[in-house]
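ENTRY TYPE: paired fold submission
RECORD: A
CONTENT: sequence, then structure tokens
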Amino acid sequence: MESCRQILLNGLDNLDIAWTEDKISQLLAFLKLIEKWNKAYNLTAIRVIEDMVRLHLLDSLTVLPFIKGNRVIDIGTGAGLPGIPLAIFLPETQFTLLDSNAKKTRFLQQVVLELRLHNVVVCHSRVEAFKPEQKFDTVITRAFAALPVIMQTMAHLLSEDGVLLAMKGKNPPDEMAEVKVKSLVIPVRTPGVDAERCVVIIDKQAISQG
């Protein structure tokens, strides 16, 4: 795991994210769990663990500066990406990780238990059927669906001042044209990954007015 640790440390420094040994240990423990459970649960198509550091851990953390408020939900979280890395770095923020795949939510329950993440709740549900008692300051998705679908299925989860963060690959002009609401597209760079990335930011007020 030493090579993974070095890639992680270099990447965090590159992203200007302050880290502690405890956080590094938690991220590497999370990585080991993904690798262990992946054989049976098919959590990710990526098999090389060093690539998981770049494409999963560091890529998830590129959105850290855009998280707003104290209540965050990660929709279609899968193996806990980006939710688990973000929760590790934002221990005072409450995270809900939602996925409709029961195997993946069982994996996440184990992650929460082993990493002692007291700020994370795992929910097995489809997003359309999920009705929380309290709405969220930030709704985040990573490679979940096209923007119009994301807005249609997730708007009910946002608080009045909430923000929707959609992590995307290339800037999606066709999707942006379909959305027809005020939005912000911010390019992001994942250390060690030679591919375009961006975050589309849309606030609840823009969705309501659209």
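RECORD: B
CONTENT: sequence, then structure tokens
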Amino acid sequence: MLVTRGYKYTLRVNNKERTLLHQCAGTSRFSWNWGLEQRLKKYKNSTGTDRFTDAMQQHKEINRLKKTAFNWMYNYSKCIPQEALRDLDQAFKNFNTSRKKGKKVGFPKFKKKFRCKDSFRLTGVIRFYHEMKLVQLPRLGRLRLEEKPSIPVTGRILSATVSRIADSWYVSVTIEETQADPSMIQGEILGFDAGLSRFGVLSNGVPIPTPKFLLRRLRKLGRLSRNHSRKQQGSNNRKKSALNLARFHKRVSDCRHDFLHKTSSSLAKNHSVLIVEDLFVKGLSMNKKQSKYWHDLAHGEFHRLLRYKTRWYGSYLVHVPRFFPSSRLCSNCLWYHAGLKLKDRIFVCQLCNLMIDRDLNAALNMVNYYHWHHPLIHVSRDHSRYSVAASFPETLNACGEFVRPCISGPDSMNQE
């Protein structure tokens, strides 16, 4: 199995190297803005197919301008403007595609210094020296790393992206490597119900507490923000306060990513099947009282990590449909609780008298959903190939859609 992985390391740079990295990021930003300006002018002044261009044509044009107007670009790698123009071309393709179908993508915008992320991408000869903790990049030479790299020797390096967060510089390397097909993990089937008061509850009864990455640091954030707003525009003190504020947000982001990676890896490595909800995080975040909590927990990023880690480690990820009433169904007798409110944290079944935690009941219903609709998931790693019912409950109907389980109880007619 051929997989593409990314490895990110912190660079240990001195003042001279830091200045050079800033200049390379400025070259990438300049190339993007130049390419966008040329595209807008061409679209306005031309007609027909002459109104459009691509990254290759623009790269040839900027190479001709290097001899006259842009001769300062010879001090930096040719990959920087080339990759910036490729990114711009891809941005236009994403915008045009989103107008017809899929998620809406905004029109490409100009990048302004101090208002965009400093980054640039390099291709070509990229080498790592593991024992000396060095990385060699085109036209930048050998740069020191904070830690010893763990790049696989057999992998093929595709590109390296150098970026800045606060006052720290990082290098992210994309590597294409061959991985043997993982064997199926022999572990329990686990349901995961996401929440706010707790990050999630597992079907085995283990709760995952909410770390509150940003919420417990709101007082410090307010103090730093007030200090920054009181500084004079353009002064050195304002630059220092902006750096302190950026370091604070970097610290919060690092803590969040550390938690998400450790939790997702633990679940993917130790369980054969993971059942999660298909959360509409954007819609949940529209609630003004709950938006900051949803954004702080980053459930969308957590699901993204689970999607590729389950493929790596040999487990399966099953998504429960968005409108499946996991919280309103009794996990014991399938009685439907139509009057359940968000403030009710204990689920009480009026049919079998079951009293259980609301989130735990939802996680158990996800496991029930798996047994209803995915009885043959262990036969093939292709999640789209499920058989119709034989001697077990229905899996798919004739049109290929999931069949909703029958719901018993007096309120079964009012479940929508």
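NOTES ON RECORD B: The chain is about 35% helix and 20% strand. The longest strand covers residues 2-12.
STATUS: closed
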